[in-house]
Design a protein that fits this description.
Blueprint: E1 3-8, E2 13-20, H1 25-38, E3 43-45, H2 49-56, H3 65-71, H4 74-93, H5 100-111, E4 116-118, H6 123-133, H7 136-147, H8 158-166, H9 168-178, H10 180-201, E5 207-213, H11 214-228, H12 235-238, H13 248-271, H14 275-299, H15 304-317, H16 327-337, H17 343-351, H18 355-359, H19 362-392
Parallel strand pairs: 2-5, 3-4, 3-5
Antiparallel strand pairs: 1-2
Helix pairs in contact: 1-5, 4-6, 4-17, 6-10, 8-9, 9-10, 9-11, 10-11, 13-19, 14-15, 14-19, 15-16, 16-19
């Protein structure tokens, strides 16, 4: 097992970097041996706040789909869970839970009363920067590879695992050749981030132990040496995320919604002089937009309360050009209240082999309810507008 001792001449602190494999029993033993023998003034781990609390919690993590959908983070979270699931499968083949060496470091630090430092960049920022940097072709390629991976693709024997830990540079170099963008964001940027964090933490201390993935050791050492030589690293630059601009699709959606509202209001204005016609238009708008939206919920095997709310909200939401006010969003959020969703549900969508499996998946059911209720309401809108325009003619 490879570990590196760095004599930090500027801050006069010895930093012990333990390069580990996240699914290796040897890594767990190495962590315990080093921390016990060195007696450092703190233990740093390759974790951020989110992964730290997820790791130390014994409860199964639930997917905050409401937050994910509202913030538009579903794709990032989707990639994160696929990668986490792949690592979990590799770990299961060795009888090790991924992150066990990090958890062991935390447990030992707590036992000795040592402070624990989380030195990795927030996973959400990392994935956001990855999505911003990747080309469309790269995104399609990674989705294809992840979605088409199987158990045989994840088979790693002991010799290969040992080589990954003892010679991680070989594998990081291979990743750099395959996808420079993924290497830059997932490896190099995080090397810089963690090196800067360790450099700052080392001030005023005699020794620190840092537990990181074996593939990060070389990069962290390189950047620590640069920091010692006075070349700074801007952390703010490494956590910048581009603000999303309104896409052409969204603008087109708003345009269509405004056109529908304009036509509907014109029809209502035209019918004001004819109470019977106005009553008929109002009745049909409610019945067709609300009824077809509720039918969509029922076809998706959603809850009856969700169908009722879809029926009541569709006639109104179809006249509000806001994505968060769409009947599908409302129906999805209502359905979400009655269905508990975990990481297993999202992974289950990926691994499903039949329609029956998908329909028994809570996450798929929520998405289906949202989609079909929206489709139903849209059919109702265009049917009514076509019919009303015919009346005007």
């Amino acid at each position: 097992m490879k570990h590196v001792k760095i004599f930090n001449g500027i801050n006069e602190c010895d930093i012990y970097l333990i390069g580990t494999a996240h699914v290796s029993k040897d890594s767990i033993e190495e962590v315990e041996n080093i921390i016990s023998s060195v007696s450092p003034e703190g233990v740093a781990v390759e974790l951020d706040d989110r992964r730290f609390f997820s790791l130390i919690s014994n409860e199964e993590k639930k997917v905050d789909l409401k937050k994910v959908l509202k913030e538009g983070n579903f794709i990032k979270f989707f990639i994160y869970l696929i990668l986490a699931n792949s690592q979990k499968k590799i770990g299961e083949s060795f009888g090790i839970k991924p992150g066990s060496e990090m958890k062991k470091a935390i447990e030992i630090a707590s036992r000795y009363g040592l402070p624990i430092y989380l030195i990795d960049r927030d996973i959400d920022i990392t994935l956001s920067r990855l999505m911003d940097r990747m080309t469309f072709k790269e995104k399609i390629k990674i989705f294809w590879e992840l979605l088409n991976s199987n158990e045989e693709d994840l088979e790693i024997d002991d010799d290969l695992l040992k080589e990954m830990v003892e010679n991680p540079e070989k594998f990081t170099k291979l990743l750099k050749e395959i996808s420079p963008t993924i290497y830059e964001v997932l490896v190099d940027e995080r090397d810089r981030f963690m090196a800067k964090r360790l450099f700052e933490l080392s001030k005023g201390k005699n020794s620190l132990v840092a537990v990181v993935g074996a593939g990060h050791v070389e990069g962290i050492v390189r950047y620590l040496k640069q920091l010692e030589n006075g070349k700074d690293i801007d952390l703010m630059e490494l956590i910048k995320v581009k603000k999303r601009k309104k896409s052409l699709t969204k603008l087109l959606t708003y345009g269509i919604s405004l056109a529908i509202i304009a036509i509907f209001l014109y029809i209502v204005y035209y019918a004001l002089s004819n109470p019977e016609l106005l009553k008929m238009i109002t009745f049909q708008w409610i019945v067709f937009t609300g009824g077809l939206s509720a039918l969509g919920v029922i076809l998706a095997r959603g809850k009856l309360i969700t169908a009722l709310i879809a029926f009541l909200s569709a006639p109104i939401t179809t006249l509000v050009p806001l994505p968060l006010a769409a009947v599908g969003t409302i129906a999805g959020l209502v359905e979400l209240k009655y269905r508990e969703i975990t990481d297993k549900d999202l992974v289950g969508i990926i691994n499903a082999e039949s329609i029956k499996e998908l329909l028994n998946n809570n996450l798929f059911r929520v998405l289906l309810v949202a989609t079909l209720s929206n489709i139903g309401a849209s059919i109702g809108v265009f049917y009514c507008l076509g019919k009303f325009i015919g009346f005007l003619g």
